[in-house]
Design brief:
Helix 2 runs antiparallel to helix 6. The chain is α+β, with helices and mostly antiparallel strands. The chain has a six-stranded antiparallel sheet, sandwiched between helices. A two-stranded antiparallel ribbon has the order 1-2. Strand 3 and strand 4 form a beta hairpin. It is globular.
Length: 217
């Protein structure tokens, strides 16, 4: 799960204490999500759900063959940092969907910044990246509270996300590795959303190019 250090809530002036138990599992909602115009061509799904055992096995095998990391990696941390710098979002992630969401690349504010400090793993049911994996399209949410479909999310409640931008990492074989995404506690304007979305898409392409260049084991 995501973990974080105590901090002072600047609005309420209250101490936010670290989580002591896993976040509750997300309740699935049978709602249609409109497919957004992102300029990306959808790739056929390998399996019906990113956590499906067959798809997970294919993903793990591909990661092994490509020689990709399954934990903290300096190269992918650099991609996450680049994402944050190019978009202006506080947090950047390169997220592989293994048995948990695993942030092989992570950029976040310093520990003494007062912002939540997240861990390297999170349940596959939490956050917005599972939506990106299932949709196989970019998901720009300049203000998550603008839509009831996305405003109710346990990660939002835990660390106060207001903006999310994510894209899927889809290998040329059609296997979905995970996502590249960025989050921020402040919403973004609709005018700025396209620029941020395009920057995240570009970082996603760079990550996949880097993955293809890795020496197979």
């Amino acid at each position: 799960m995501m973990s974080y250090i105590p901090q002072t809530n600047p609005v309420a002036g209250q101490l936010i204490r670290p989580a002591t138990a896993p976040l509750p599992r997300r309740v699935n909602q049978d709602l249609e999500i409109p497919r957004q115009d992102t300029g990306l061509t959808p790739v056929a799904a390998v399996a019906p759900h990113p956590g499906h055992p067959d798809e997970l096995a294919q993903r793990e095998e591909l990661i092994r063959r490509l020689g990709l990391p399954t934990s903290t990696d300096a190269d992918f941390d650099a991609f996450a940092r680049d994402l944050a710098e190019r978009t202006g979002l506080l947090y950047g992630f390169v997220n592989f969907f293994l048995r948990e969401q695993t942030f092989v690349g992570l950029h976040q504010p310093p520990a003494d910044s007062g912002y939540p400090i997240v861990g390297r793993t999170m349940s596959r049911d939490h956050g917005y990246c599972p939506e990106v994996m299932e949709r196989e399209l970019a998901l720009p949410l300049p203000d998550v509270h603008a839509s009831p479909r996305f405003s109710s999310n346990h990660v939002v409640d835990a660390i106060g996300i207001r903006a999310y931008f994510g894209v899927p990492l889809i290998h040329k074989s059609g296997i979905k590795l995970g996502t590249v995404c960025g989050i921020d506690p402040e919403p973004r304007s609709d005018r700025d959303a396209r620029r941020i979305r395009d920057a995240v898409i570009a970082i996603g392409r760079d990550v996949m190019h880097h993955a293809d260049e890795k020496t197979p084991r």
